[in-house]
Structure prediction request, 350 residues.
Amino acid sequence: MKSSFLLLPLILLFLGSCNSDNNNSKQSDTASDAVVNVYSHRHYTSDEKLYKAFEAETGIKVKLVKASADQLLERIKMEGENSPADLIITIDAGRLWRAKDAGLLQAIESAEIMDQIDPLFRDKEKQWVGLTYRSRVFVVHKDRIEGLDLLKTYDGLAHPKFKGRVLVRSSENLYNQSLLSALIAHKGEANALNWTKQVVENMARKPKGNDTDQLKSVAAGIGDIALVNTYYLARLMDSEQNEEKTIAKELKIIFPDSGKYGAHINISGIGLLHHSKNKENALKLIQFLTNVNSQELLAEENNEYPVNPDAEWPSILKAFGDFRKDTLDLNDLGKYNTQAVKIMDEAGWQ
Prediction:
């Protein structure tokens, strides 16, 4: 399994490709410019629409750099106090914790921002806040439901009855790492290791592909249970391709809930960087992205759940039904990531 340290060659290539952009940013981005510099791991058209709307409303230009969270964090560290970045956006709470732990963030001192975000989706020390959230759930085939009553909890996925029936992404996937981090926080490392070993035993094939591939493989009969994020099934349901809509109709979502803790959740989130040179503009953008209108657009176009409790859910998410969310401190997804990766290695999760 690759560690972040092994990403150095890729990071250097990334830095080189962005060098021109970086130099231009250093020359033009001062505290007096009407600009906010965003380093983002997200790549959705909904985000681009919101940035354009923010620019039209405020006159503040959003300058965007896209890469993986690990690449962006390494770039921010290497740029140091000369970094032009004001904000970092990640698709995983664990990477926000990593930025916080490295001293790259500062507190978001804005009561207006905090008041419009559910406390579950913001750091207690105000170092980051959520933009959207999702749950990692089971999706099964409606016609192959033998034994599925055991899937009331994540423990159920490890039951021997599901040997050869489970479809998952690789251990390099952040979503799987964060789910296992949550299980470590709840159950301890020994129990998490046993769970992981049994899940590996239950896999229908060697992990490959993204969450959509797991869903299509359930429909194709390669396995019976996919471990995926909620929005992947919603995308199939909302697809412009009839074939994907037909596949979605064959599938059913199950939210695990043990009674002790609910379904695992993770966030896309945003942090204000320590060396931000456009802090006021950055705060305005965070406030804009978490207001009701922006939250409803993110939910409607990406089928992600809004972190603003006043934002209405789109019809597809309403059709999934409400569910009990795990209230674990999302910083734990980062705190236990190293242990999660080690456990996956030991258990043979490729």
About this structure: The chain has 16 helices and ten strands. The longest helix spans residues 45-58. Strands lie at 35-40, 61-66, 87-90, 105-106, 128-141, 166-167, 225-229, 251-254, 265-273, 305-306. The longest strand covers residues 128-141.
